[in-house]
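Narrative of activities, Objective 1.

The group set out to show that a structural description can be obtained from nothing but a protein's sequence at a throughput compatible with the screening campaign. Below is one input-output pair from the validation batch, recorded exactly as produced.
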Amino acid sequence: MPTESGLLLYGTDGCHLCEEAESVLASLGVAAKVVDIAGDDDLLQRYGVRIPVLRDGAGRELGWPFDAEAARRFLEHE
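Output recorded for this entry:
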């Protein structure tokens, strides 16, 4: 499954919600580059209590919880 250009999924290793978000994207045939926020203080401060967060190349963000329909609508406007 190719990674969508500019699509990032912020999360942390072992985050079960992040795994669920990846599954939602996979159900749509979409892959995002997974960014582990644990090693970056700025990302940790910005996203620490919000993960998983899907971010597109334009800087728009879709925060959890989201289902396949919400993700599809978000991606249609990418």
